[in-house]
Amino acid sequence: MKKRYSEEQIIKAIKQHEAGAKVDDICRELGISNGTFYNWRSKYAGLEVNEAELEELGLVVESESQGSSGVGRPSLMVAPNENVVAFSVNPEIDATTVSVVTLSGQVIDRRRKLMGSHPSPEDAIRVSAEVISEMRKAFRPGTQIAGVGVSVPGQVRTSDGVIRYAPQLGWVESAFATALSQETGLNVFLGNDASLGCLAEARFGTAKNVNDLVFLFAGSGGIGGGVVSNGMTVGGAAGYAGELGHMKVSSSGRLDYSGLPGTLESLVRREDLLDFFKLYVATDEELAAEIRSSESSRAEDSNRSGHCLDRRMA
Q1: Which of 3, 80, 195, 196 could cysteine-pair with 103, CB 3.0–4.6 Å?
Q2: Which ranges of 215-283 would DSSP assign to H, the alpha helix?
Q3: What's the confidence (pLDDT) of residue 181?
Q4: Given this model, what pLDDT does residue 74 score?
Q5: For the ranges 50-59, 128-137, 157-166, which has the lowest average pLDDT?
Q6: How far apart are CA 43 and CA 24, in angstroms?
Q7: Pairing relationship of beta strands 171-174 and 144-152 according to DSSP bridges
């Protein structure tokens, strides 16, 4: 019979490995495969709390399993507490988007506030705080707020929530997290948009059980990326690793948003796509839909031309 391990036991095994124990020895002691251990590490690495502590914090709830048909007391199931939510903030070149997300990852509210071109950090902070205040008025009684996560298209120093350089936004050395926390009274956590996307894909997306991956991200702030190696995200010495958009791929003199020539980002710029489709402003979803529509039209034209050629050849 396959033995089940609690999160506390799994985290303890991971800590043993981090302290120097060999993977083979840990797996032999627990009776698991190396693959199982690496899947554990991909999911639980960095966690310090157990289920009891999570329940005490109100982040999870326990319930009895409904499908149990065995003898004795039904097993307990642990699930995220849906009364706990977090805000996400995404400042862009022409708008700021604020969302409400549950612990299970469900987006229950999203509002996009259009702004003038290249808003200042102060403007984005003010708008974010106003939208968050409006959203909180609609919360049900008993709703708990875990905090605010900010996704920024630029270099971020996560230790103190400072945006070092966001080239497309034109922001330099902005203490964004501290200022937004003061405006909202909530804990604020800041990260690079592509790095956060990579982490989300590794923890919750299609790469959930993948130990090694390269993530390429294209958004309103340019092209970025992230890397997961052996189940761990790679941040580099200063936390800027994975900036795939700034890799030189061409001898072209075109500049990317950071002023670097011939990079991947310099060859695929968002404003070029907006100009091509004659769009003044558009969300990433609207721009993607326009691109898909264009691709569909080209495919239809190609098929039509192919049919004509087939008739001519016949």
Answers
A1: 80
A2: 264-267, 270-276
A3: 95
A4: 53
A5: 50-59
A6: 19
A7: unpaired
Contacts of 45-52 spanning 24+ positions with Cβ under 8 A: 45/14, 45/231, 45/232, 47/7, 47/11, 48/11, 50/6, 50/7, 50/8, 50/11, 51/6, 51/7, 51/8, 51/78
- pLDDT > 90: what percent of the chain? 25
CB 101 within 8 A of CB 111: no
**CATH number for the segment(s) 84-196:** 3.30.420.40
Six-digit token string for 100: 């409400």
Which residue type does 191 have?
A: G
Angle between helices 176-184 and 121-137 (to 10 degrees): 30
Residue 182 has which token pair? 């003061």
Q: Judge if pTM exceeds 0.70.
A: no
Cβ-based burial of 125 (10 A; exposed 0-12, middle 13-18, buried ≥19): buried
* Alpha-carbon distances, residue 258 vs 49, 220, 225, 237, 277 (angstroms): 40, 14, 15, 20, 24
Residue 311 banded pLDDT, cuts 50, 70, 90: very low
Instruction: Return d(Cα 123, Cα 129) in angstroms, integer.
Output: 10
